Amino acid sequence: MFSNNQIDINTLPSLEELELIPIHKNFLYILIINIGTIFVGAVGGLTFARWVSEDDGFSHFAFYLQGVLVVVGLIVMLIYYLGFKNRKYAIREQDMTYTHGYLVTKIITLPYNRIQHLEIRRSFLARKFGLSTLKIYSAGESGGDLAIRGLPMDIAERQYAHLTQIINDRV
């Protein structure tokens, strides 16, 4: 017989009770390097354009635009720096949880029974810092995929093996 009883919300587990593991601190360096590269490249491109341009109006505009880019780049780096402490994850018996963000905090919990396949990715900088990304693809079209960036390689490999075992046991 079908039942749909109401649940007392006071008996539900609290998110604060979940022991979240912080992402490796070296991932912050990768974020800052990536952001810095983009903004330094843009400022450098404008510097070159000012150097080759003979139009004084463009030169003044590009100079002010460079100042804006420097300020915006510093603000973006500050936001990533402040939000870095919120990059955490937890592995439980039935699911994984990942949280990130500063201005907008996002918490993703992915049940193991929705996992379709796994992938470990390593960018050039991630390899240099000994880090990797564990990408978990989920069933459905809701965009429930999960990517935990900034994991030490050995931890990503152990989690990969653990999750692969769970997926294989399902079959």
TrEMBL record:
<keyword id="KW-1133">Transmembrane helix</keyword>
<dbReference type="Pfam" id="PF03703">
    <property type="entry name" value="bPH_2"/>
</dbReference>
<feature type="transmembrane region" description="Helical">
    <location>
        <begin position="61"/>
        <end position="82"/>
    </location>
</feature>
<keyword id="KW-0472">Membrane</keyword>
<feature type="transmembrane region" description="Helical">
    <location>
        <begin position="27"/>
        <end position="49"/>
    </location>
</feature>
<protein>
    <submittedName>
        <fullName>PH domain-containing protein</fullName>
    </submittedName>
</protein>
<dbReference type="InterPro" id="IPR005182">
    <property type="entry name" value="YdbS-like_PH"/>
</dbReference>
<keyword id="KW-0812">Transmembrane</keyword>
<feature type="domain" description="YdbS-like PH">
    <location>
        <begin position="85"/>
        <end position="161"/>
    </location>
</feature>
